[in-house]
Amino acid sequence: MKLLIIVTTLFVTYSISHAVTTSEEAAVTRDILTLIPTDGNQQRAGILGGFVRLAFHDAGTYDRNNPETSGKSDGCVDLSAPDNAGLSTLIDLLAPVVNRHSLIMSRADIWNLAANTIINFSTPNRGGTLNIPLRYGRIDVADATSACSESDNNKLPNAELSHQHTTAVFVERMGFTQLGTFFFLNQQCTI
User: Fold this and answer.
1) Interval 57-106: pLDDT, tens
2) Looking at the domain assignment, is residue 190 inside a domain?
3) Helical H segments across 36-177, by residue range
4) pLDDT tens, 130-165?
5) How far is 140 from 37, CA to CA, in rounded Å?
6) What is the CATH number of the domain that holds 131?
7) Which domain holds residue 91?
8) What's the half-sphere exposure (Cβ side, CA atoms, 13 Å) at 191?
9) Which of 23, 76, 79, 117 has CA 20 to 30 A from 52's CA?
10) Does any domain span residue 140?
11) Residue 116, domain member (yes or no)
12) Active site residue 165
């Protein structure tokens, strides 16, 4: 359970002008849950894992040694990058939720809430739902599909490289532990 909190807080770096209320968060969460198909396991799995992937790819170029200028969760994913293939479908799927709640949360906040909601939805917990704290206040760039910062290119983890690469990305650059990295990658495979 501790790992999921680490993963969620990786995406938090900004503040907003008002605090999101519990009822506002619940309304956005309900809208996100309506996007999950009730039949068709293949499509359902793509959406569940896809929301987590979208939130991670929005912030996955983060460098703890350079936090002010490295990848932040800003509602921008470079769709021309091969690592982001398929994310446009998820961005489009979430667009009505983003538009409906844009006065409450930023696009980046909603993408992170979608990931958090899916982790809660798909992670069985004894006697209730998993409660992962999520803070709001991320600031969006103007266009969710524009080419993002050049400095972020090629910084997402590459699944085809070695354990040393995974360690360099998650442990050395992002600040995860080895155990946290293992659980994060396992969660990506099981949602």
Assistant:
1) 888 878 888 877 767 788 888 888 888 889 999 999 999 999 999 999 99
2) no
3) 41-59, 87-100, 107-122, 163-166
4) 667 788 888 887 765 555 655 455 677 777 888 888
5) 28
6) 1.10.520.10
7) 2-156
8) 23
9) 23
10) yes
11) yes
12) no
